[in-house]
Every structure is written in C-alpha cells, then in structure tokens.
C-alpha cells in the first residue's frame, strides 16, 4: 500500500517551505492575466445594463463601430430578449486602446423598456410582487422539505426552547484580480487564451465547444491567478466574448472585468434567512430542530445553506426555498452554504446553552459526534484562554467590553481521480514536474516541488514545476471544493516514484547492486546494504546520456482522504459607545490530514479566517429597491478587511493522519459564528444578522436598554 | 472619462479668468485629484477643461507663528498630519488629518481639495441616478438606503459632508481665503459651508469663478485641549459614520469654552452650539458630558437606516468631553 511514510522519515514534507513563486509575486515579476500584453493587442469592454429588468427593444451599434480605433463591436443580446439584472451584457467592443473601448461602449444605443423589478427578498416575497421568472410560481422555488425523527415528540422532551431568526446577506467574492482573459488566434483553427481561472482544462473544454474546435487546438494558460474563491470555473461570457472579438479582428484581445462588473455579474454567496425553533433536554442534548428558511442566489437558484450543522439533532424538520430577485447569479463561494449555516447554528447553540445555564463549550461537547473536533475544543480553549471568558455575558466593566466565542465547521476536500502528471529527469540532473492543474494562490506549485524533491532526494528549488498550461496535454481538474492538492499529490508522488525507479534501474549496474537496494540521499543515490557505494545525483543522471527519463503517475486512493473538522475561538472587544467590534485574536484549529507544506497550510488558514472575519463584520451587498441597482459595487462601500481589521491569528495545523486533504475552504467556516458568539459574550446582547456592524450593535444595545 | 483639455495654471488671475467663462462643471480645478479623478472616471463630472493647480507658485506650505497658522490650499493632508506645531498645539487638526483615507491619498490630497470635495453618497456617485443634488427631483436617501446619510440639516438633500479637516478647522475657529475675479476675500470657514436648504447643488458658497487659496487658524489659546474622534466601520480607508472635532478651553476640569463640530452626520460640518452650551462653564463629569451628547443630537431626524448615528454621535460628543477633562 502506497504511503507518505512516517513524519520522522520526511525531509521536506510537513516542513515550512517558502512558496516558489513568492519572490516573483512580491517583486511584481509574476505575470497575472491582467499583465499579459501581446503584439497588436486590442482592448475589450462590455456595455452592461444599468436597469435590473427590461425588454430590449432596440440595439444600434453603428455609432460605436464608426468611432476611430474601434475594430469590432459584438452584440451580446438580441432585440426581443429580456434584461433580468443590472450588469447583464448588452454588447462588447474591441479597440486600439482601453480608452477608446470605454468611449465606444458609451456610443452603443440600446433601447430598453423598463419592467417592474424586485431586488430585495422582502420585495420579491411581498404580495403582488411582479413575477420575474417564467418557470416559477411567484418568486419562490418549490420548498425543499426534509424530515428526520419526530419533531413533535422531540419538542415534548425539550426542557428549553429557542425561537429566533438569523440572517446573512449576499456577499461577493471580491477577487483582487477581476475575471478576465487575453485571447489570441494563431490562425482560424488555433486559439490561445490567458485566463484568470480556477480551471485551465474546464476553460479549454468550454472554449473548444464554443468555437467548435478540437480541444487540442485550444491552449489555456494561467501562470498566476489573483483569487477566484469558486467564481472562476470557466471563460464566462467575458471570456467567450474576448475570444470572439479576437476571432473577428484577427488580433489579440484583452478583456478584464471592471470592479463594478465583478460585484454585479461574477458571482456571489447567496443570502440566508432562517427562522428556527430548537429545543434541548435538561441534560444538554439537542432534541428538536424546526427550521424554515430562504435565501437568494439572484435570478438563479442555488441559495442552499447547511441547517442544522455539525451538531447532531435526532428530530428535525427543515424547509428551504430559493427567492428570485433581479440581481446577478450566485456562484460557488468558499465553502458554499457552510459559513452562513455555521453562523446560525453556532449562534443557536449558544442561545440554547444559555437557557440551560450551561457552558457553551460543554453543550457542544455533548452534541458534537465528531471526535476530532472534541480534541480541538480542548486545544482551542487552552490556546484562547477560555476560562477568561465572561461567565455572565456582558458583565465586563468599562465601555470597551471583551468576550469570547466558539464556532465549528466541517468539509470534504479528499480530491479525486482527475489528474495526469509527468516527472522528467534530464541527463544534466534537472527535473521537471508537469501537470495541468493551476496554482490559484494556494501554493500547489510549491507542494508539487516538495513531493518530487522528497522522492528524489533533491531540494524544492531544484524542481522545475510547470502548471497552469493546457499545452503539455496533461489534464487536471478545476481547483474547487478544496480538492486540488489531494487530487494532484498522489499522481505527482507516483510519477516521481516511477521516475526514480527508472533511474535506479539505469544506474544499478554501475553501482553493482540490485535495484531494490538503491535509495536516494541528499542529492545522492546510494546502496542501502553498502553505504560506501554512493553516487552523486548529477553523476547518476549524467549516465542517462541522450535517454532522459519521463514517467507518468496515477491516482492512488491510499494517499488521500476526505473529511475535515475545524473549530475556531474568537476573542473580541466591543466599544459599547461606538458599536465597533475589534477582533483581538482568533485561534483556528484546522484538521487537515498531511500538510505537505506547513507554511502554506497556515497561510490558507490565515486567509480563511480573514475572509470569515470580513463576512462577520463588514461585507454586505446593498441592493436598492428604488433604482434596482447595487449601491456599493465598489471597494469603498463594499468593505473587506484591511490591515487594521486583521487580528492575531493562531493557525493550528491539526494533522491527525498522514494522508493528503485539502483545506482551502474550511478555515472560513467557523469564523462568523465564533465572532458573533464572542460579541454576545462581550455585551450580553445578541446580533442575529451579519455583518455585525456598528449600527447593528448600537441598535441591539438600545433595544436591550429599552 | 470624457475628453477634456488640460491647462497647467501659472497664476491665480489666469485661473479665475479660465473659470469665469463658464458655469459649474465646464472648467474644473484639480490638485491631488483624489476626489475628482473618481468623479471623472464614474462620469459624475465631465468638464471640458481641467486646470492643474499644482503648477501654481506659493500655494503650498504651512506658516506657524504667534499669529497662528496659515496653510496654503495646495498643502497635502500628509504635511498637515506630520507638522510638529499642528501636532502639539492644534492636535484636533493633526488627528483629523491622519484619519483621512490612506497614506497614498494623504500624500497627494490637498487641504483645498479636502474642503471642496464632493459627497460620497452612493446615489450621487452613480452616473445613472439623477438625484436632487445633480438636478433631479428627489433625494433617493429619503425612501432608499440611508445607512450613511445625514441625521441633521438634511432637508432636502441628505448627503453628509465627508471632510475630516473641515470640522477640525472650524472647531479651531479657522477662516478661509478665497480669490475671485474681484480679488481676495476672507471669511469664517464655518460660513463657507452651506446646507442644502440654501443650495441643494453645492456644499459651500464658492462661486463658479472662485478658488480657495488658504486657511488661517488663530493662535491656540493656553490650556486648550483639542481632539478628533472618528467612528467608522473599517480602520482605513473609511469615511466617518460620525466624527467629533472638539476644542476645549479648560481650567482644571472646568470647561471655560468649547467648540464642538460634527462630521459625517450633516450635509455640512455641523457646529453644535447645543453641546457647547451644555459644557461651557461646567465642571465636566459623566452627567455633564452625557447632557452635551444628548443636546448635540436633540434636533436629529434620522432616516430609515441611520437612527444609530444619533446614538453614535451622542456618545462621541460625551466621550470627547470626558477626554477633554481627563
């Protein structure tokens, strides 16, 4: 059975190794799609609707076409069709400069007949609301009802009950590099696209289909990527448009989304509202749970969320509906459905624990069936100093009050059989590892180097890693679901092992030893039964002459494992006069299996915590019922964490086994719940709506007083 | 942005002459550009001519002597923030300056631009929304989303004035010097700003052919304590949800005189005579400071989403008073 060996045997795996692309990134040498410039490059722009719901009754491109410098104008909607949200594409242009392209889209004459719109869930659910989807009755989907056990009997056994409503608004991904592509045709049969994507091969498949080309005539390159978080799995309208404009003009076209468009059309995390009634027995067992909830994923569906979450409730009934509004579609966003579900569940847990007069951590211990998290509760509580929390919420003295809270999460992340890879040993001793995955900022490039270097007795910097390019024809899956490392690692390891085996076979005669006796040392190969027989790596590979070694790898179930648990503890300080919440410290205990690179694993946890903090305290999409527009489609009023918001983060890599598991998503899940509970512990008033901004804190404090 | 011609200014006469040919918006002035560039890019402003003031001689710099401060309109916010005399004797101004935006913006943003910047209102900044401030019929904040809007002096336009420097300077009793075709005039900075009831389209009394050239601050009185408190949702960059500029002349814990000016809550920097009265001649304690806070907001008329600003402003005023006495 293949294995990663014992920790004591590992020279590199599990250590803290700086990411290979780190220097290029901080010096600006790393080229992102935004930075790609090609000879004769044209600039693409898209005209978008500012009206949320309308019939397209006229479209005149002639003025735009007549503007000097404009090389192509492409309609993206037909007269007679409907606009269904702000930001929807109307037409695109390609021009000699970006400024000309900006001017040109303003010369496109589109005649829109405005229709009644609804952009908030309240308006969509109101009686007499205009119907905005033809395929639904009203603006709600059919309810998804699930039942287990007997909730009536459950509530009869309950000693305490809580009945409350939790809400989390729509959040957008805020990729620092907006969506976009640079497209270039070599001839009318060969297309190359530099794409800001989480799926090099998915994007290739989509573009090949769009242009009716064999996949091997489309090349997609993603050398570096500035954030996707689940929103970048294909070329999208903007990518297909860039390629079409490039085809029309015979020139390369760069088309990146504006920040505004990024908020409007490039995906979002759906909202969540849940009205929940829940009960627990006098000995602290969750016994009954009845939840009716809804959310909006914009004009599409997909607004699901986890409820109940993590903790076991034997008797439960849940009912969810999707609400349609005239707004851009949701897309997967870092742990879809989990953080908002966790926020509600962990808030509920604390509310029940308080009614029981029980320590919320103790209440979790009773109801959490997961052994890993049970261990994490102990470790995390120790790290944060849980004994220091207010035993009576809000009892701290002074204007600025501190509090602590806890939240939990779970995720899969076990990877899948979707990757081809190749490891090549050249006669000069250099090594190449090639696969069609993409490094979306998570550090898989470095992980690949570590695995190969460990297997061959080299350093990570010795390995030439080539990812983010479909050209070598070694497909891999999209980077979603925290699957990348767990999908790629087994294939890379087996490819490196196969290459090593081939090398051993070639040099065994030279060392006068059986192949099975050969081992790699630090840049050497030696005979395990006779350590005097050692040959330097460089000398060994020199024996290859013209015949370099190149081996593929294979998927191996035994090298990976899915299913992770996580727990976070937050300490906050709330200014009761200004309503400002400052997070002092987060302890994030994240189950992650074998951390190939402890340093980038910690970075993943840090990043997840920061994103969770943004959801907890800052982020909200504001849709205006008057104009039908998003009012904060920018980074001024759509607020994301900055340096001042980022607390001390103690990232605990909780590696319970030696199989690879992804941790891209899970560290953002427990954060909002932990912070919300810490706020309650600080001030003794519960804020049941995210984000916990000063207005909500002050309003809650005022209500308590009144 | 729309096309415009660009002129490097050589003299104030030339600037006022260029301005004289047009009404609002045809010819616009640019210094740091941190506000105007965003307006141009968003098509909220579309001038035919842009006059670059950075080439004007003698409009930059801080003179600090026994007669007080004279700050040129082209002085950067960063230079104000780090000036030792301002830090020591006009603390409220240094604190306000360092609270502005980010280091990058403070390094190029100027005093004149900070005072004359346009509202941040999300309806005003949306090209497609023709709101009352831009000549339309309604202020959308009244029935729309109003979390960041005015609680005082709004009618009929509920923007808030975004400047941090203005409340601080008004609290220090500053005056502003303006040059127009008829020459130079000086007025109190407090009177420079106007409310929408007087003019819904502008935030100050400047005429289309006038330009702010400097700000003067009278000498700091002995035993004066001054401070700027700014509440925001995010550390930086963020505009004030509410801010308080306070200048207190103290005799021990007794407040002999107080200037209290609020930011982020009204369409102009809001001098709170009510809070000043509540503090003047009083020994400052918790009760007195609370009363000053309550008096500061007693005329507040919140919209749908901003009642919290009433509490917040009240608390900030009380806090400022308590800090003055500590």
Summarize the model shown:
The complex is a heterodimer of chains A (706) and B (326). By secondary structure, chain A is of the alpha+beta class. In chain A, 28% of the residues lie in helices and 25% in strands.
Describe the overall structure:
The complex is a heterodimer of chains A (706) and B (326). Chain A contains 17 helices and 28 strands. The longest helix of chain A is centred in the C-terminal third of the chain and has 28 residues, at 484-511. Chain A is of the alpha+beta class and 706 residues long. In chain A, the strands form seven sheets. In chain A, strands 3-5-1-13-10-11-12 form a seven-stranded mixed sheet. A five-stranded mixed sheet of chain A has the order 7-17-16-15-8. In chain A, strands 18-26-27-28 form a four-stranded mixed sheet, sandwiched between helices. Chain A starts with 21 loop residues before the first helix and ends with a helix. By secondary structure, chain B is α+β, with helices and mostly antiparallel strands. Helix content of chain B is 29%, strand content 21%. Chain B is built from twelve helices and twelve strands. Chain B has helices spanning 12-20, 36-41, 77-82, 84-89, 91-98, 103-108, 111-116, 165-171, 189-192, 273-279, 286-296, 308-325, and strands spanning 5-8, 27-30, 49-52, 62-65, 68-72, 175-180, 183-188, 211-217, 224-231, 242-251, 254-263, 270-271. Classes of the chains: A alpha+beta (706), B alpha+beta (326). The A-B interface holds A 50, 102, 577-580, 618, 622, 624-627, 629, 631-632, 636-637, 639, 641-645, 693-696, 698-699, 702 and B 1, 120, 122-123, 126, 128-129, 140, 143-145, 147-148, 231, 233-238, 241, 305-309, 311-312, 315-316, 318-319.
